[in-house]
Amino acid sequence: MSELSDDELDRYARHIVLPQFGGTGQKALKATKVALIGAGGIGAGALPSLVGAGVGQITIVDDDEVDLSNLQRQPLYTTDDVGKSKAELAKAHAEARNPHLAIAIEKRRVSHENVKKIVDSHDLVIDGTDNFMTRLAVNDACVALGIPLIAAAAAQFQGQLMLSKGQPCYRCFVGDAFDADDCDTCAELGVLGALTGTMGHFAALMAIRHLADIGPDSAGKLHLFDGLKASWREITIAPDPACKACGT
Ligand SMILES: [Zn+2]
Q: pTM for this one?
């Protein structure tokens, strides 16, 4: 595992002093390659935490440009950025924050056809896309390739997040009914801006817990946040033996 330079030891000092984390956890993050699917509400919340934490290699996947209506919930972007590539802006932000990382971008829309190639060779995928068709395609690819997946979403006042390490998977929870549903959830339903940030940062926290192997394993649990009640719930997802992705 790669050693940490003097600059990195200073940069990550508040991590390294944590007894459960230490140099071992920091080196584990440095050695990791994460794919972040979507640089929108969830992704723009997760990325700064992943970058600050020192996740060594990050691939940012987004084919979108900044729209004025994104600025309500996507703090990576400014008013001057409207019309510019989110992936390129997110990469520039990441490189300015932390020069020790290798940041790659994929300016492609994720589909059933290209998703396996995009996520292949990553240690973890964080999906923050906002339609079920893409989310299920990402899930199926991660299950097929044996890559752990954090699927995070937010709509209206409700946030949800699930870490899957194969079985049960995100499809065990959602089922097959949404495979053709490519509607933009945020545009149709609305979403509280601070909620996407909450779920994005939570996705980064769950990624760091998993990558540094700290805290109890929460794979297979669905975390639900109600932004109106300001309360969290946790549901254990049962594996679906008939699941198209992970079933036997
Ligand atoms: Zn499944």
A: 0.96
